[in-house]
Design brief:
Elements (H helix, E strand, L loop, with lengths): L1 H13 L3 H10 L5 H13 L2 H16 L2 H15 L3 H15 L3 H16 L2 H15 L3 H16 L2 H15 L4
Length: about 170
């Protein structure tokens, strides 16, 4: 019975009924008979490939450490609270991310980790700059993008040298 309940848990997750799955997982109690029947019906509608995919996800879930499971449950709860439009946006972004080449995904993960390590003040400063750039006319934004791309294409040593030159001139009294 436990195996069936766990599979139902995964089916609920797969079919978007995250609140039921999270509720069960958090309380570690069996689902109601009605919920089980509903999940069984949905399970029967899945293709063999979808069922196999869920079995594999179940194995991964079983091997996760409790802290990771807790983090995932928390994200599911947060997702459930989003509006339908926000959920669609999250799903679209996830699809785009999954379709990126592995090196681009890794670069995005690293960028995200850097962002997470910033202080709240630094994050706010960056957000303010972004808002300022977004408020510029399109032509000006495009010009800035080109300049930024050119800057990024410079070797790091040259960028550092130019920054030092700029700041040394900026701080020199005239």
């Amino acid at each position: 019975m436990v195996r069936i309940v766990r599979n139902i848990f995964l089916v609920c997750l797969f079919l978007g009924n995250v609140s039921v799955a999270v509720l069960w997982a958090e309380q570690n109690e069996e689902l109601s008979k009605e919920q089980i029947e509903k999940a069984k019906e949905k399970w029967q509608q899945l293709t063999p490939d979808e069922k196999q995919n869920l079995r594999e996800k179940h194995k991964k879930w079983e091997n996760l450490d409790p802290q990771k499971k807790k983090e995932i449950k928390k994200r599911f709860e947060k997702f459930q609270k989003l509006s339908p439009e926000e959920k669609d946006r999250v799903k679209q972004n996830w699809k785009r991310f999954k379709n990126l080449p592995p090196e681009k995904r890794q670069a995005m993960r690293e960028k995200f980790e850097r962002w997470q390590s910033l202080s709240p003040e630094e994050k706010q400063r960056i957000k303010n700059k972004r808002r300022m750039v977004e408020s510029l006319p399109t032509q000006k934004r495009e010009e800035l993008k080109k300049r930024h791309a050119k800057w990024q294409s410079l070797p790091p040593a040259q960028r550092e040298r130019l920054k030092n030159e700029f700041f040394s001139h900026k701080n020199t009294p005239q």
